[in-house]
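Here comes an entry:

___
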Amino acid sequence: MSRVRILPGPPGMFRRRGQRLALGGRRVGGRRYVPSMDRVAVGVWSAERPGTRRERRRGWLGRDRIDPRDALLLERCRSVHTFGMRVPITIVFLDGSWRVIRVIRAPPGRLLFCRRARRVLECHVGANVRLGDVLIPGSGPRDARERP
């Protein structure tokens, strides 16, 4: 009976001794497996949520335009950059309760940071988002004053 030693790795991913992993993927049956981004409804947007480091790093890079209904949701994120982008975007910093704490219209070539943020929503430059809005997954944005 052979023993398999599990080495520490990224959360949810296990490796055997001697097995190398490709960045942003894992080995399944000797082949590289790279999952695609899953979609989640956040407010009025259909947001892509990257599942790997490679997808997070790529983000919106290489796109000539962004559909006004599309967004990119980065969980556990406090800083983003727009280096290498071709179009300006709106960056929405969200706290732990999905409340908008900062909104920035960012041109390409910027580095942005918000210490209180827990997640970031990158969307079309014309997005109508205001400070204090609460973006609940699966529903439209609400004003913080309208909360029961």
Remarks:
- The CA atoms of residues 41 and 138 lie 5 Å apart.
- Helices lie at 53-58.
- The domain at 38-146 is CATH 2.60.120.1140 (Jelly Rolls).
- The mean pLDDT is 77.
